[in-house]
Structure formats: C-alpha cells, structure tokens
Specification:
Largest sheet of chain A: 7 strands, antiparallel
Helix content of chain A: 25-40%
Oligomer: homotetramer
Shape of chain A: globular
Strand content of chain A: 25-35%
Distance between the termini of chain A: 10 Å
Largest interface: A-B, 67 and 67 residues
Radius of gyration of chain A: 22 Å
Chain lengths: ~475, ~475, ~475, ~475
C-alpha cells in the first residue's frame, strides 16, 4: 500500500494551480546556437516546471553547464548563455518538491568521469531509487544530492563497454517513470521508461535533431515532429546519425493519464493523440452522461487547461460555450504584505469572473481534476458570490484517490479530498449544485485505448511503488 | 491633417502585440492597507501598461509616493510598499512612448505646494498640451518632465478657491482625452474628459470608495461597481462623503472604440456595455456579412482579445469554434542573443499553432485590428506553414486609417497599412485567402449607439487635434 | 536660535559612520564618452553620498538624464549608460536626509523649459529655501519635489536675458551654501556660494573641462587641476571657451571646516590646502598640547579619516604610530537577521582591533569628531575589552555644539553629546582615560587662516540660518 | 619540474590585485543562530575569496546548504539564511580559478550518504588529486564536479569505522595543502594538512566552538582564540566536547609564506605570529639592507597589505612614513563601457595618488610582491606622472620564481616576471629608480624560524607537486 508522502503546499493563498509535474526536458543535436535553441525550447516547456532551470552544452570537446533557481528567465542570465558554446545541448525545467530546493538538486547534473563528461536531465521518478542508492552506497558510491537523477549517472559509471551499452545496463535496473536526456561532449541520448509513463518525442531540424518532453517545443524551435521515443527505447544521436537501441523488452505502454488531462500544453501531441482533441472528447463524454439530467444555461471552463473540455461539453450538449472565467496573464511574485481581507481575495488575483455571462445563470463548469478541492471550492464560491445562480461542476478526469509514484507531486490519501468523502458530501463541501467526474471507461474511450496509467485513480501501479 | 508622430517600434521581433494604451489608473479612499489594495488593483490593470508603475498614498497628514520602471512587480519593491502608509491611495501603470523612458515621466506625479501635496495619475492625452505649456512657461512656470500630465498640476496651482474649484477651472482649459485621479493628504478626486474618451468607473468597498480605469480591477479588490464617472464630471471623495461636480457642460459622449475592441479586459464593463458581449457581437455581425460568401471548416481567434469575436462568429455562422492558436503564458524578457534563424522564430515564442485542428482545414481567423500588419502576416504564414489550407482573415474593427491623438500610440499614416493599400492588395500582402473588416455601422450596431470615438477610422476628432 | 532638525539615525547598529555630507557633483565639457567619464568621476566622489546617483548628458541638441537609488553601481545600469550620449555631462551622488528618499528628489533635476532643457546638480543647503519657495508659490510656481535644489531652476526660469544673466540673478537671491553645476544642451556652468562654504574646483582635460566637488575626482579621470571656483563666481564653459562671471560681490571666504576634518578624501586639495597635510597638522597640534601631560605607548587613529591626524600626533610626540584598528573593506547590506548578541557585535563587522599592538598598551586614539558619541564609546569599549590598558581619546576637531544649516546632516543640540555634558562627564561617558578636543585656534593655525566656517563649533552662521 | 598552469587573468585593466588565495573557511559548533554567525565570520574572511560563498547548517537531525556566486552578500539571500536553521554551521568563501565558475564547484559540498550527510569546506589544493580521482574512478566512483574537494568525500565514504576514523584514513591519502571543515548533522571537524601549509585556528565562544582560516574572524564574532589546529591534527567537536586525533605523524611545519606576506588580514595571528608585526619587521629588514645606500625623502606603501612593511621601513630608516597612495573603498563592478582612454585610467579607479606628499620627492615605495609586474609598473608610472622625483621600489617578499601547487593561483614561469629577467632589467621594466627584494634569510629572520613554505621562491615543494 502506498505510504509515500510528497508534501508540497501547492495551494498557496494566491494560487489556483493544481498538480505539478516534476519537469520538462529538451535537447538539440548539431545546431548552431544550440544553447539558445534549448532556451527557446525550454520556454515552450516552462509550464512543466517553474522552480529551477538549467542548460548544458557541448562543443565536441568540452561540456558546459549553467543552472539556477526560478523561471528560465531568472535562472539563466545573459552571462550564463555566453558560457554555453557548442552545437549540442540539453536543458531542464524543474518543479521542486519539498526539501529539494537546494542548488545541488538542479539539473542537468554533470558527471566529470574519466571516460568524459556526461550530463543528465530527467523527468519522472524512479521507484526503486532508495534501494538502488543504498546498494550503490554499500559498494562505496557517494551521492552529492538527494535527487533520484544522480543514481542513473552512478549506474552508468559502473558498467562496462561503450556508453550506449552502459546506459542500457544502467536503465535496465531502474523501475518507475523516466524520460532521460544524456549529453556527452559529442553525442545526445534520449531514453524512455519501459511503460512510456513519461513522454519524450523526437524531431528533426535541418540536418540536426531535437528531443523534447512535448511536441509544442518542437514547433517553437521550428523543428519537425518525427515520432515519439518508444517505451524502452534508447535513441542515440552522434556522428553516426540516429541509432536506436533497447534497454529492455518494451513493457505495456502506460502513458500518464494526467499528461493528457492536465499537464501537457493543448497544442502538443503525445503518442499520436492531440491533447486538445482528447480534452474536447472528455467534455463530450461528460455531456452525454449528463444528457437530460441537468438543466443549465451555459458551459464554461477553468482556464487554461479545462477550456477544451468545456468546448467539447458545449458542442455535445448544444449549450452555449462562454468565457465565464478570465485569467490574469501577469503572474509572478508580489511584494505586498496583504491584510487578511486582501489575502482572502487571493484567487481573484489570478482568475476573474466575467460577470456579464454568469449573472443569474445556471453554469456547467468544467475543471480538469480535483486534488485537495481548495481551488474548486473558491472558484464556485466566487462565481456564486458574483451572481451565478447554479454551478454544476464537471471534472474531466476520474476521482484522484491514490498518490502517484511516477513524478507527480500528489498529496497523501488523507489530503486527497475525493478519497475522504463520498460524492454527495464532496459536492456539498465544494458548494456545487451537482458534481460529476469522468468515468475511467470514458477516459479509455476518449483516448481510444486503455494503454494509460490510471494509478492515481485505481491504485494499480504499472511500474510498481517504492 | 494630422502630422503628429508617436513613434514606437511596437512590433519587435518577439512580440505579437498590437496598439498600446497609454495607461491605467486606480485609486482607493478609506481602506486599511490602501497601497496594497492599489497594488492589487493595478495588477488587474497591468494589461494597460507594462513599462512603469507607481503608487502614492496618504495618511491624512502626509502624502507618499514610490514609482519605478517595468512591470508592477519590478517597479515597486517590498521596501517601497513599506514606505506607503495610509488609508487613501492612487496608482498608475504606464506604457512609455518614444523618448519618454526617463524617470521624471513616471506617475503619479506629486506637487508639493503651499496648499498641500497633490498627486496626479493620468490616462489619456491632452491635445492642447503644447499650447498650454507654452502659455504657462510665458507666465514663468517651469516644467521638470516632458509629460502632458504635469500641466494639469500647474493649471490647478494657478487657480483660486478650494481645490475642487481649482480642478474645475484647470480641467476646463484642457482639450483632449483624460481620466485623472488626484490624491491629497485627505481626499481623492476622479475626473473624466467631457467626451468620456477615456474610461473611469466608481466602486464601493465597505465604507470606502474605489476609482478605476476598468471594472475588472474593482472585482479583483472585492469592490462593487457603482457607476461610470460621467463625461465632464469631477467626483470628490472626502470626509464629507462622495460629492459630484462638473467642470464643463458634458460634451457628446465618445468613448474610445478601441477600448471595446482591443484594450479593455474582456471581463470589464464600460459605459454599461460588457466588453465581452460586445466583442462577441462584432463576431456575429462579421459572420452575417459573410453568410453564403465564404466556405470554411472552423473559426478561430488570435488570443486573447480576439477570442470572443471568434466565438460570436462561430455562433452566428454555425461553424465550429476551435483553439487554433495557443498563447505561451510565460512572457517577459529573455537573455539569449538568438541567431537570425532563431529570431525568425520570434512569433512562435508567444503563439503556438494547435496543429491538430488546422491540418488541411479552411479557417476563418478573427483578429481585432490591423495596424502595421506585421503580426497578422506572420500568423497567417505560420498557420499555412503548419498545415492550414485556407485562412480567411476577419478583422473585428474597421480599417485604422488615421492616427490617434487621445492617448493611443498609433504610427503615422505611412505606417498604417490599411491607409496604404486597397483591400485586395492588403489581402495579398497579408497572405490571406480573403479579408474583411467590420463596417463602422456594424460597430455602431454592436455597441447599440454611435456615441463612440471613431477618429482612427474616420479622421474626425471629437476633441480636436494637436 | 537654531531649531531645525535634520534627523537621521546615522549610527545604526552596524555602522561606525559619522556626519554625512549631502552630496558630490561632477561635470565634464567636451569629452568623448562624457557620461562614462562622469561615472568615473562620481566613483571617486562616492564617499560624499551613497544613497542615490544620477547623470545627465547632452549632445549639443538634446539633454538626457538617468538616476536611481543607492550606490552609483546600483543606481545607474548598463542600459542607463547607453541612454546617455553626448560630449557634455554632469552627475551627482547623494546622501538622503530623512523623508527624502523619494525618486523625485534624486538629482540631477531637469527642467524642460521653452528656452531649452536645464539640468542642475547641487551640493549644499539653501537657508532661505522655504521663504523663496513660498514666495514662488505665491507667484504661481509649482514644485514637484521637496528638495531645495528645484528652487534654483524656478528662480532661473523667472529671470530675463541670456542664461548666464538668469543664473546670476537667481543665485543672488539665495542665502546659504551651494555648489551648483548646470548643464544645457550645449554648455556647462559651475557656481559657488559667496562664502565658498561648499567646495568646487575646475580642471582641464585635453581641450575640454571638468568641474568637481573635490580634486581627487580630477585625478581619477586624468584631468589637471586648474583652480578652485571662487566664492560668488559663475564659471561658464561653452563654445566661447571658459568665461567667468560674478553673481555677487564675493563675501568672506568661509569653507566648511568639516570638509577638511572629515568629509573630503585625504588626497584632495581644497582652496589650496592639502586635506592630508592639514589633518596631519591637527594631530601635531594636539600632540603639542599634550606634551608632558599624558604617558602613552603608541598612537593610533580610527580609519580612514583619522589616520593622518594620528600620524601627525605620532610625529610630534615621538610615540610610535600603529594600526590598532583595521577596517573591513567589504561593506554593504547584509541579509542576516542577527540575534541580539550578534547585533551587539555590530561595530566589529566594520572595524577590527589589531590585538598584537594594543595588548597591555596605553593608546592615544585619534578620532576626527564626536557627534552623538555612540561610535567612539563602542570603539573604546572594544579596545579595552581586547586588551588595551588605557585609551586617551584625542579629537581632531573642536566640540560640535551647534547644528549645521549648510548641508551637513547634524542632529539637534539635544543629541549633540558635547553640548549636553562637560568634558569630564563626556570622558567618563565614552569610557576614555582622558579626552581632549582640538581648540578652534589650533584649527585656525593648522589651516593657516580663519577663513573657515566654524558654525557647528561656535554657533555663528556666516550665511545666516533658516 | 612544475608544468601545471593555473591560468587566471588577475590583472584586468581595472584591478590592482595580486595573487589570489583560493578560499576561506569558517565553522561554529553549538551557537544559537549558527548560520548568521558563520555569515559574520565569512564577512571577516571575504578578502580570501570574492567569487562564491556558501553556508551549511545542521540542527542535530538534518543538514542544510545554500550557496551562490559572487560576494557573500550576492551569493546568500535573506531567503537562503531563513533556510539554514540549527546551532552548527560551516561556510566557505571562494576564489574561482579558470574554468571553475560552474555552480557545481561552489562549496560547501554536501554528500548525502547512508551514514548521514556530510558537508565539506576546503581551503587549499591537493597535489595528488588527479591520481586519487583516477583511482577512485577505476573503483567505480563518480564525480559531479571538477573540484579537488569532492575527492575527500569519496575517500571518506570508502573507509570503515566511525567517522573520525574514516576522516583519518582518507586524509592520510592526500598530499598537498588543505584545511578542511566537515559538518555532519551533529558534529564539526577541522583538519589541517601535515605541513600546516594552509592555516586553521580554533576559538571558543560561550560553551560553543569556532574554527576559522584566520583569527580576524574569531574577533568579528566575539570568540576567543584558543590555539591553531596543528599540522596533521583532526579536531572533532561533538556532544563529547573537543577531542583531538591525528591522521598522520606531523610533518615539518611549513605554513605558506604568502599568508604572512599578502593574504591574511593584518589583524590576524597565525601560528603564534602577528601578521602585522611580521610585515613591519620585513620592512625594517629591508631598511637595514638599504642603510647608507639610497637617499630618499619619505616611505610609502601600496595599500592595504604593504602599509605595515612601509611603517617598519620608516621606523628603521628614520624617514617619514606618508600615505602616498589612497585606496578608493568603493569597489565592485561598473556598468560603463569605457573608451580606450578611460580604460587606461584603470588603476586610478582603485588607487589615488596623494599629490601633496610626493611632489618633487624621492620615495621608497613598499609593495608586498611582484607577480606579473603589471600593477607595480602602473603605480610607479602614475606616481612619476603626478610629480614623484624618484621611486625606489622595495618588495617585502623574495622574488616569486616558481608556481604554487598549494592553492594559490600563480601564473606559469613564463608569466612570472622575476623569473624572466635579471634585477636590472626588471627595475628598468618597472620604471623604478632602484629595486630590491627581501632575501629569503630575512624572511626567516622576520618570521623567527624557517618553518615556512618557500616553494614559490625556491622551487622546493614540501608536499610534492602534481
């Protein structure tokens, strides 16, 4: 039974954020200004992590690395960029979990080994990290940080043979979820876990290559999507061109369902599915389930991730789709010490109600997920406060009942509100007039297959737990 | 014929911005933590100006002021906020025009006069500024900055009688567009020009009051909308409560049409009209004009301001509404020196194409306005490049043919592309498959009256030109 | 009787600073990279003010200005420097007095008048500022800041004739202490008050000119000292070369004694006297007065300003001169919140005791002045704590008994400790084994004339009080 | 023969700095606000390294670490300090050598091992680093940075037994120069290399303990000096109090001569010698060697490190001691792009000539060392340019002829100017009227023993070379 506890107060007073993804990775091979291109790519992946960023680059002979805390623009200075020459590069944006805000946990992490330098950027979570770490320590290995990601460098170091073989042997010892980028002075590698839990895709740009957590970053640098890296695959890009290796028999494909529901940007395509189209479809399915059961005047979504589901619901229900909530695009830290009354206005700093469409109206409100329930509760309260007559909350994902061990920062079962009360109680708690979640079967239908990870909904962990 | 030339390269490589509004103003009377409340209010008005911000506050005896360059969060430090005590406050966010980036032009501007201190925050442009300034200089007045806004302080200073009477006499000498907030040690004043060219509204919060450029900022601080300040009205808020004065016979009401079309946030209401609803209506009217004339598969808008028009068009045409363009919410300065090829990717840093909806499709693309045409051209090119079969551009405003003298930073006629070519040539230039603008009559219909300023469309200036 | 109260807690826990000078000014005429040269000059004057800095420049047609809070390196960014073209420039470093930390009080202040732009940088204090201001306000003038320095711009504006005549007429209305630099698009002016209370000197560099508060800044930019600007003189530098004008009959010369004692850098020369040599001489005179009256093992000074006096004392007394106190050169803000015990260590952060020379020794300790007495008390306590057997305090200036009205930030009489107790009580209060101040007559002898301002010692104000 | 090449252009145009020490370390055991105390201690050691700083702290259960680039005040934010709880702490200030400016090389470095966390702060250089590293890599160890200091953590990890035994065994494998501080969750260790090449001292504060590179930092935190850590000694401080261990038979003591000559602050005492007194003595010895051989009017030193030698010279020669050079205390980065002519003024930005004492005079100028000769040449040129008649340069150290392998950043023999020309040629090159270095025998006499490292003077390396 899961007991792990990745604590993070991700509902601060001034936030309406939801679950947080651990990170995004991006790499380029053989491109002039590789580090700048990586910067642009990471910019398109910034939604995957805002608490740290780093870029490594290589010029064929030397490997360079610069990293720092905060958003990309805060973490990497102009001076840093000037210290990142070369035509190959990898980068990382990071969402820091509890206790992990120390500089040593920023990525890429660079090993300076006798066989050369090796930088790693990692998205995901290794469930047997602590076992592996203990075993390595018993063999005399020393760890300088507390991150999972350092382990893979140690495992690689221990193996024999050429680097790709070392990576094969090292990865075969890992359980869990991972997409790795590795950079040496001369080559770039991408690896995806055997279940494909975390995404990774391959693009082409001129005579060079790009690897990215999401396709949206390919477009942003003018690269062309080639294909997803496959579960269990190692892609090696070097002067020999692109070569493919396997570190394992591929397992069942189980891409993280929350990538489709919440994390990925709507314009990305993952494992052949458009994120946007799939979100719309979940909305349609929710509408069909509601057909004849609820009367409402309009459909709206919580921006930005729930808008496609709301559009799909509107389409299938025939109800008008409206922008009932408007997001303030100017986010970032503030420098005021608000009064308590001002603190209570928190959610209004990020989300504004478009009064003209909700006044006296019955709303179907689409949201992507319910974790602790805090934000949903505030939004419903705000809508009613400013004039909505009814708010029927529809969640474009199943109830989150179990923690994630694959890189998503979920609270304990005690804090997962859907695990703590039945549907009626939850509906009352949130202040909604009715409440419905997407069924897992509908999610399967929207996706067109059951090859997704449903661990947080069903508690069955395709790659085990820690 | 207008010859004025407000130059600003507002189409830098990495921008898809359009016209820029000069500023936003916000004020509170009798509220604990007034400066913090103003900070929150300005945060909701940040879209009106990103190049400078300032806050003044008053505690009944002393008037304080802090201001700086950049976004609110850059301009005002935590230390600054600690230096702004008191229960009354006004603030300003500013869009800097050419040459005006010097510290002395930041607002609020504070006069330290024998009758007490007086802070002013100004949105708009005074067309007889240079005459007034010259006349004042002949009378021995001295100006420390180059902004229009300093003039009103001098005019007030010259008058006799109580402050409200001085303000009346001073404002009656001004021609042009203005919404002023004035703060003394004890009272707050709001003034709107006789044509109501620039917006200003009044809200109530507890036993205090709020004045704001837009209603969206009232909501963000938990204030209730009371009414718009009327053209020619002076609202005085003091220990005697709210009093109303007039500095002139009200002129014809002529609120700036571009406020409705582009500047204001969609959740604001101005002069009784919902910005959002009116934008939807312009979309519907464009659709009706197109009925039977254009075949397309879907409707999309350029985010964020053109989305309601696209929704309206979709509703009226029966075509599906889709999110074809996605905006990257992480804006801000970057620290790279991109290669030329990377520079050409500029627009992609801010806007991403949602390939899944445009592949092989014929799009109706709604945009709010065409100024120099640079951005529209790039977006159409990007859409076609990534798979759109046809792009039919519909502009939710009439052609901008004349410069603005009322606070909007328009280029010269030579740079206004719609003034330089006929519709067919423009369509070809932009790379669109067809192009249509909103008729002025449709704008009148959408608004429900002709009491708007159409100067930039028609060259008739309700408050004269400079 | 003086009642003015320039409050400033200039003895914060972590400071050993003394009196603070209001500012330093520096200007250049006809030099490539004028603003950079001014930056270098201000860097050499940074000891005269650390709380704000600004630079104006002119290219023959336009006048530019950039300014900000803090040290020069904090106030003026690289981007600011890039906005300051031209071959003429003036700059200012500022020590902020109470309440004056608002952006509007930074200098240079620029008037944008019909006759052109005029920037002013001011060191000193105008004693009839408030009268002049009131009078100007009665004539309808409006002031945007609370600084004295704005007044001169208004007075100039009111006069007729060519600019130099306007400056003459304006300055003749001022009482008090001032050194002004004025910059127009094309010319540079320097003015010194009729008593020469505040210093200003003239240098030559190639075919251009330099004006500076102190000669140390001439050296730092490679300029050659020409002469001091004379009391009552206006130096005009333009395409006609250097011209000299008088705004008044020169008054008695009364340069501020504290410039020689404390403010100026030791390598400066003022009114023909080397600061360093004069400080040494005060030390010699103190030694002579002590001859046969005090037994001691060594002489030391409080760094940096009291070292020459200590060297002079050692020379005249034959006692060895030692570095008993060492200054930590790394100053600046700290980011810790110290415990109370750590706070008590305050003075040790800036000054360290060289234990090897004081152990069991009887010290003659030279300090330049006693204001509130706080720092002297701490230093003596620290020296005894770490092993000094006796500390005989010798002050290289007379007792400060009266406030300054000429630009130096002195506390009220109540806070001037020498005005509150007799010599014996003060000696006990400070924890010294004996205490002696320099006599005014000795100061006259060291200077070689009585043409100094002794107002803070004797309460006679050569230019009146406010 | 040494071939190693630690390159660093430490004579940039705007610098008069000399050799650079690698770093300073400071630690406290059992003190409230331990991290703040370490901050204060590092502040007093800031002269030992300005390019990086870090602090680790421990509260008995957990070990925390924060570090960053630049001066202490830049590297450690207020927020960082708030993340460093506990009553034990160590810190580090760092001077970055070539190529080592990457974040991973900042210290303290923290190992997160199965036996607990271990932070290390290191001053010095390990000459068999590359051998040890290679050997460890052959055993499968992985290094994340390029610094020497990571090696010790790996060596410790590999050993058996209690931590102190592991440290013993690890240190016994090291050759070279080191002072280490180690911090665990509960205890503090200090180690000094067997030759005592790098300094480390022990102090007491209340019922807690302090370890520091120099005694000046003990005073700054109110601690009392107890004794130096002895060559080869391991000091362990834990709940069992202070215990002493040896990792080796102590070797000959050979403290770095340059610590006494240049690096240490004058108020520090090292191995029982006052830095200040020893510097004075070198001056006296130089004077004696000159007796009757050179005529001069005065003696001066290059601030700050050469002032005591100048004072000693003056004392022994009977010539007056004067402040001929004044240092501008406001250092730090500038934001100008100077013209070439301004660049040539470089040295004047940091050092000013006190013209009043040098005009027409013959100077004995004391400087502490000659490395590349660039700065001495500029200073002599400047002095003569501004009026000095003769400049007789006396160097308070022997000629530096060989590179250092023990932590000091010396250039290659090709760049060591004293290794490239004979005394006459060097004198001419520097523009001096005569030139004399201290003899090694005089250094021995001034120190009172020959137990110093003279490697850079004589090429004999007490702890071997790499």
């Amino acid at each position: 039974m899961p007991e792990r506890n990745l604590i993070k107060d991700f509902y601060p007073d001034f936030s309406c954020d939801k679950l947080k993804e651990e990170c995004g990775v991006f790499g380029v091979y053989r491109q002039e200004g590789a580090a700048s291109l990586t910067y642009l790519g990471l910019h398109a992946l910034q939604h995957r992590g805002q608490e740290g960023a780093g870029i490594a680059s290589a010029d064929g002979k030397t490997l360079f690395c610069r990293k720092g805390k905060g958003l990309l623009t805060e973490a990497i200075s102009h001076e840093d960029m000037a210290s990142l020459p070369g035509i190959h590069s990898i980068g990382h944006v990071r969402y820091a979990t509890a206790g992990g805000n120390e500089a040593e946990n920023l990525q890429p992490i660079v090993a300076r080994a006798s066989f050369g330098s090796l930088a790693v950027a990692h998205n995901g979570q290794i469930v047997n990290a602590s076992e592996l770490r203990t075993a390595l320590e018993h063999q005399g290995h020393l760890f300088l940080g507390s991150s999972d990601s350092e382990i893979i460098l140690h495992l690689i170091q221990k193996q024999d043979g050429p680097l790709v073989q070392k990576i094969q042997q090292a990865c075969s010892q890992l359980r869990g979820a991972f997409a790795f980028l590795f950079l040496t002075e001369k080559s770039l590698y991408g690896v995806r876990d055997r279940n494909g839990l975390r995404p990774l895709c391959l693009g082409k740009k001129g005579d060079g290559w790009v690897l990215s957590s999401e396709t949206c970053a390919l477009d942003s640098v003018g690269a062309t999507f080639v294909r997803d890296v496959l579960p269990g695959e190692i892609v090696k890009i070097s002067s020999h061109g692109l070569e493919t290796f396997w570190y394992t028999e591929p397992g069942e494909r189980r891409t993280c369902a929350m990538e489709y529901i919440y994390f990925a940007r709507a314009d990305s395509t993952m494992d052949g599915r458009s994120i946007y189209q799939m979100r719309k479809e979940t909305g349609r399915l929710l509408a069909r389930a509601d057909a004849g059961k609820v009367e409402a005047d309009l459909v709206a979504g919580v921006p930005d991730s729930s808008l496609p589901a709301a559009m799909g619901y509107a389409e299938a229900s025939g109800l008008p789709y409206e922008l009932a909530l408007i997001k303030n695009p100017y986010v970032g830290r503030t420098f005021i010490e608000p009064t308590q009354e001002q603190r209570d206005l928190g959610v209004r700093r990020k989300l504004a109600v478009n009064r003209s469409v909700i006044q006296g109206k019955r709303l179907i409100l689409l949201d992507d997920s319910v974790v602790r329930g805090t934000t949903s509760k505030r939004i419903i309260h705000l809508l009613k406060d400013l004039g909505a007559r009814e708010v029927h909350l529809r969640i474009a994902s199943p109830e989150i009942l179990f923690p994630c061990f694959y890189g998503i920062d979920t609270p304990t079962r005690e804090e997962l509100i859907a695990a703590q009360m039945d549907m009626d109680a939850l509906c009352r708690y949130l202040g909604a007039d009715s409440l419905r979640f997407l069924h897992v079967e509908d999610l399967v239908q929207a996706y067109g297959s059951d090859s997704l990870c449903f661990a947080c909904f069903q508690g069955q962990y395709p790659a085990g737990t820690s």
